[in-house]
Amino acid sequence: MRVLKVLVAGLLLVAAPAAAASVWFWKQLSVPIALPREGAIVTVARGEAFGTVCSHLEESGVVRHAWVLYWWGRWTGEDRLVRSGDYKFDEPISPIAILQSLRTGGAALNRVTISEGRTVASVANLLDRAGLGGADEFLCIASDPQFLGSLDLPASGLEGYLFPDTYDFARTTTPADILRAMVQRFRQQIQPLQARVAASGLTEADVVTLASIIESETGAARERALISGVFHNRLRIGMRLQADPTAVYDRGLTVPTADDLRIDSPYNTYIYPGLPPGPICNPGLASIEAALEPMNVPYLYFVANKDGSHVFSRTLEEHNRAVAAARRTTQP
Question: What residues contact 303, with CB distance under 8 A and at least 6 apart?
């Protein structure tokens, strides 16, 4: 009996640590750990050893112990199912779930939001900051005649055709494919409007150019069609558009001075009649629709208030009074 008790005690002494180790091991596999605030991106190269992948995951803060994941993957056979690609982890995830995600070959996606009214140069800088490529490379592609021709775009460049929206791009997506995707989104949005473009008497390029000026003049939804009506009125009677943003577009400025309005530039609608040679920013759908559906108004002039809204006038005399009033409210 005594021998039996000793054997049982010995077995317990061996089993207890083994059970504790099993519990610890399983906890390491099933409990997520907190990720860095910015999340983590792990690249699995083609043909990379599973042990190296586990080390990358530990170094990125996705798993606590690389060796735990390694031996679990070897024991289950899932180490042979890992696919190459970029993987982005935004939320805590257990090692077991990580192994499942590594079987998808999914790509890590960088989300970028292109707001209405950004220029191509601004978009290039935004994409650069998002880690999707150098700004200079984007700008080079944006003015490449062969690239523009492949997309059936005007020689003036990509300005106006990078549709403002939220995009998800893999880090491995080439700059050319990123720009192409934005142009394709533009095509998707404008396709249902083609009948209205034809009925407007304007070319698609004219519509986008006018929409870009409307976008640059106001961000107020209620004023887009009204401002469009003013510009259509001016175009109809051969009056210069005199849109401030056009005078500084090709110099990368935003707020023109009185001297800027007199600088000779083909984009300066204070000097040259009609529309400028091309868009001055990338307009959103609302501004494109406003360019196609101008409000029927008697106005030829408008001036901005301090709050960003505008005062509209029929005559130059009315306009001058509105300008004087606006200046009084903005002076300290």
Answer: 310, 311, 313, 319, 322, 323, 326
pLDDT tens-digit map of 186-244:
999 999 999 999 999 999 999 999 999 999 998 788 899 999 999 999 999 999 999 99
Give me the DSSP letters along 26-86.
HHHHHS--PPPTT-EEEEE-TT--HHHHHHHHHHTTS-S-HHHHHHHHHHHTGGGS---EE
Residue 47: exposure state from Cβ atoms within 10 A (0-12, 13-18, ≥19):
exposed
User: In the numeric block, which tokens belong to residue 299?
Assistant: 């106005």
Find the range with the poorest average confidence among 1-15, 189-203, 240-254, 275-289: 1-15
Report yes or no: 244 and 230 within 8 Å, Cβ to Cβ. no
Entry pTM: 0.72
Kindly give, in sequence order, each residue whose CB lies less than 8 Å from that of residue 253, ignoring residues fewer than 6 positions away.
260
Give residue 178's pLDDT.
96
* Residues 245/216, Cβ–Cβ less than 8 Å: yes
Closest C-alpha among 168, 161, 226 to residue 188: 161
- 160 neighbors 278 (Cβ within 8 angstroms): yes
Structure tokens at 188: 């998707």
Domains of the chain by start residue, with CATH:
31-107 (3.30.1490.480), 109-191 (no CATH), 193-330 (no CATH)
Residue 277 and residue 213 in contact, taking contact as beta carbons nearer than 8 Å: no
Q: What is the 3-state secondary structure (H, E, C) of 8-33?
A: HHHHHHHHHHHHHHHHHHHHHHHCCC
